[in-house]
Amino acid sequence: SILDNSFSYFTIVISMLSSFGRKLVFSNLSYQTTEGNLMEYFSNYGSIEDLRLFKDDQNQSLRQGFLVYSD
Questions:
Q1: DSSP designation for 32
Q2: What's the first-to-final CA gap in the chain, in angstroms?
Q3: What span, in angstroms and rounded, lies between the C-alpha atoms of 1 and 20?
Q4: At 62, which helix (H) or strand (E)?
Q5: d(Cα 71, Cα 58) in Å, to the nearest integer?
Q6: Is 7 exposed, middle or buried (CB count within 10 Å of its CB: 0-12, 13-18, 19+)?
Q7: Strand, coil or helix: what is 11?
Q8: Measured between alpha carbons, how far is 71 from 13 in angstroms, rounded to an integer?
Q9: b/e map of 24-47 (b: 16 or more CB within 10 Å)?
Q10: Which pLDDT score, from 0 to 100, does residue 36 have?
Q11: What pLDDT is attached to residue 20?
C-alpha cells in the first residue's frame, strides 16, 4: 500500500487556523514520497485544491509540504 511504502514515519498535523480547517500540513515524509503519491492517497478523502511538496534546488524532497482541500 502507499502508506507502507511511501509514507513510513510521517506525521500529519491538521492546521485549524488557515483555510477554515481544510489545510493539512505534513512533515517527516519518506524521501520516496512524491506529489503523485500524496494526491492519490489524500484524494480519497475529498477534492484537493492545492498540494505542495517542498524540494531543494536539486529537486530532492525536503520531506514536508501541505495540501488544501476544496469546499
A1: T
A2: 27
A3: 30
A4: strand 61-69
A5: 34
A6: buried
A7: strand
A8: 19
A9: bebeebeeebeeebbeeebeeeee
A10: 92
A11: 55
Quick one: cell of 52?
Answer: 505542495
Q: How far apart are CA 12 and CA 22, in angstroms?
A: 13
Query: Which residue bears the cell 500529519?
Result: 12
pLDDT per residue over 8-67, tens digit each?
444 444 444 444 578 888 888 888 888 999 999 889 888 999 999 999 999 888 989 999
* Banded pLDDT at 7 (limits 50, 70, 90): very low
For residue 56, what is its C-alpha cell?
Answer: 531543494
Edge-to-edge strands of the sheet including 61-69? 11-15, 23-27, 61-69, 48-55
